[in-house]
């Protein structure tokens, strides 16, 4: 089974500069290819991966885009493949139309296939890179596993990561069980299970709330575009990263326990993102800050009927479940019995 192993690493100044240049080239190629395909779409034409690859070859020959030749060609080709996958998801109605990548907001990453890196004796060296990466081996790779794909990324806090996709022969399917559990996101609790158990919301942001507010005020006082502004922004990003790491770790442990104890997980098909954007539903009296802080739905499989990592089926009920009973007038609002059912389901009673 394919499995990704993610590690932090500390690049040298030369490696950091080369990777930053590669990230910029990947973003440039992706945006240019997306613009070309969007223009073709307006002309009711289709552009496939092979045509995009031919465009990339032509771009490299121009004087203004000659810098694309200074980085490895593999991450640029992979960017085109990712764009092809994004359009495939769009045409299959699984995702929205692809969007342009932003230098400040988009994730900085580059993907290398086996032809663009060497991995020998625990040392990873990327194409067009001086020396191997200084990886922090927090856990070993499975014995006998060799990376087939390597993805290098940098988060907003300035931390560098490398993700290695390997064949893991040690992964075994979990033993089948007859247990099943229903999961509902609550307002007072993170989760309410059909077994009667409630999972408290850890509220990971609470301990750093004052520190985050102070860092944000300090950042707002700095002049835009200055070096001090960038330092302050990094400090804010590091606090956010610490909160995110704690949240992800807690959710991973929780979902692992649910998957191992149950064969079937029935999850409400609820879109918390839209609820948070709704100023009436997102009011503190309706949805406390801890609801979005818990972020349980970030672990939910994409789409309906998806599967979690350990092969346990996730089966959301239809939107016409008793928690969303429309009134008899046909206006599609929730009736009083439906609201009462939703309140009981939320509190786990």
From TrEMBL:
Residues 1-45 form the Transposase putative helix-turn-helix domain. Pfam families: HTH_OrfB_IS605, OrfB_IS605. This is Putative transposase. Residues 169-278 form the Probable transposase IS891/IS1136/IS1341 domain. InterPro entries: Transposase (IPR001959), Transposase_put_HTH (IPR021027). It comes from the Bacteria.
